[in-house]
Amino acid sequence: MLTRRALLFSSMASLAFSGLARSEGRRRERPLVGAIRWDAWYSPGSTPTAAVAESLTPSQYRWRLPFFARETDKGSTIAFPALTQSLMDLEIQQAAFAGLDYWAFVAYGNDDPMSIALSRYLSSSYRAQVKFCLFTELTLWGSAGKLSPIVAEHIELMKRPEYVRTNDGRPLYFLGFIDQNKISERWGTHATLREQISSFRKDAVAAGVGNPYLVLAGTFSELTEWASLGGDALGAYAISDIRGVGPYESLTKLTEQRWKAISAAGLPVVPTVMTGWDRRPRVEHPVPWEHSQKVGQGIDYYFGAATPLELVEHLDHALKYVAEQTSIQRAPTVLIYAWNENDEGGWLVPTIPCDTGRLQALHHFLRSNQDLSLNPRCTVRSP
């Protein structure tokens, strides 16, 4: 029997879904659809987990907590449990239900608490259901004088059968958070970094994984600078405006204009699909790694939350944007921000107690399933 919520969702969505990409039929070779994973939530006692728990503790923000969060001290604080294999298995199944092709894990060192989720993913028996790739911050590559071992580690990970590849077989890799200051401090010149990117490609080919499809993402205002570094495409981790404000529709309008602006650099564009942008939790309780954020500074700048249908419409626009490009300019994927950037306002992961509306919307859009009563679970099953 359908719940009242499912009936309401069904009546609103049945016509809307039929008018989106389904009207053109499902292309077998549609772009891959991935989502960023930023995994601060899974290591109790660590600085990242403590910070996100504090930022989402105020009552006005608790509705956006991931479904596995727990209230403690009679509801006065928030806690996140250590990531078990069962919980990761469940998240993989949730993402597979939604129709995601892969997760782009924000990369950190093997011993970093932010890498626990990737470790649990790689040990999951469900991992083939949702593939993975890496979104790596440029600074983690080291410098011209001392290349980080993480580069070789990432090439090794590309050997895994779960590592996502483009339709022509190339491993997908994002190199992001590029800006002129970082290039100058660590690489000296653009030419030096361009040489390192070329060496990365050669090392990957020599290791037998093929030539990576490299998406470069960095500061939008410096687009013409980092577009010449030797990437295959350009993209962005997230797209917003530091003084942006308005409903979700305003955010998507800004984002879709930005796709077109990035394309002026001459490379294919991997469009970032924004699930939201509302940093007020971090404005009220700044996190330690955002050194320039002052308490309360910018509290009025945020965009309204997306409804499931609005989110799907934005994704539909991204897929159509890619399809409209020439074969040379057509990127192999779109990237959703994000699976779990809940305290920044961008998420797909179910929120407490078990709001799966966004996953349901993606499921019916990407998988063409007419049964709107289907719903992924939020409860970890006992072994």
How would you explain this protein's 3D organization?
The chain has helices spanning 4-18, 47-55, 85-98, 116-122, 150-157, 180-187, 190-206, 223-226, 248-263, 280-284, 308-323, 357-366; strands at residues 32-37, 70-72, 77-79, 102-106, 131-137, 172-178, 213-218, 233-235, 272-274, 333-337, 340-341, 346-347. The strands form three sheets. An eight-stranded parallel beta sheet has the order 8-7-6-5-4-1-10-9. Strands 2-3 form a two-stranded antiparallel ribbon. A two-stranded antiparallel sheet has the order 11-12. Helix 8 links the parallel strand 7 (213-218) and strand 8. Helix content is 34%, strand content 14%. It is of the alpha/beta class and 383 residues long. It has twelve helices and twelve strands.
Core attributes:
single chain; 383 residues; alpha/beta; eight-stranded parallel beta sheet; 12 helices; 34% helix; 14% strand; disordered N terminus
Portion in strands: 5-15%
User: What is the overall silhouette?
Assistant: globular
Q: What's the pLDDT, averaged over the residues?
A: 90
The overall strand count is 12
Strand order of the largest sheet: 8-7-6-5-4-1-10-9
Structural class label: alpha/beta
Q: Unreliable stretches, pLDDT < 50, 5 or more residues? A: 1-18, 21-28
Note the main sheet.
8 strands, parallel
Oligomer: single chain
- Give the number of helices: 12
Helix and strand succession?
HEHEEHEHEHEHHEHEHEHHEEEH
Q: How helix-rich are the residues, as a percent range?
A: 25-40%
Give the N-to-C terminal Cα separation: 28 Å
Radius of gyration from CA coordinates: 20 Å
